[in-house]
Amino acid sequence: MAMSYRGCKKFFSGIQGIPNFLYGKHNIIMDMPLTMNLSRILQGAPFLDYEAQSYARIGVMPRYGGADSVIWFDVEPFCTFHLVNCFEEHDEVVVRGFRVPGSILMGPTLEHSVDEEPANQELNEEYFSRLYEWRLNLKSMNVIEKYLTGTGVDMEFPVINDKYVGLNHKYAYAQVVDSQGSLAGGCGVGMF
Question: 49-64: buried (b, 16+ CB within 10 Å) or exposed (e) per residue?
């Protein structure tokens, strides 16, 4: 996966960091509401911002296609930097990755009580990175989205067996992050 800026002007009114993933016949373009804006710095705001009220979409582009060949699918807004794998199944392109409904990349914006000890504060699952699947149907243009793990697990940095890159896979391995901020170890996640 790489951060790509080629073609951004054609797709977007502003500059966005766009993670993309190449597998087999298609490029997968993750267009999420994480934006970079120099004018925000002049106003005392962060250069990077997660615009939660904005849109999100996933693009499927033929391997050697151009901007006009991208098929866009509207999805629930999210933030992600690490995809597990992408593959085709019948008429669908299946994208598996770690989805976060919000982003704390720019620093936490959580509202905590000053009187409360950090260890006693309620955890906000909005910032948990969980295994997610997007099924993009190239014929019907429908999207099916779902979490593949429960709400109590925060994971990142996925790895799969290299023999299954671009193919349907049964297992993925990831770093499990303790919700209290320490690294708890790794785990294997069965997809089925």
Answer: bbbeeeebbbbbbeee
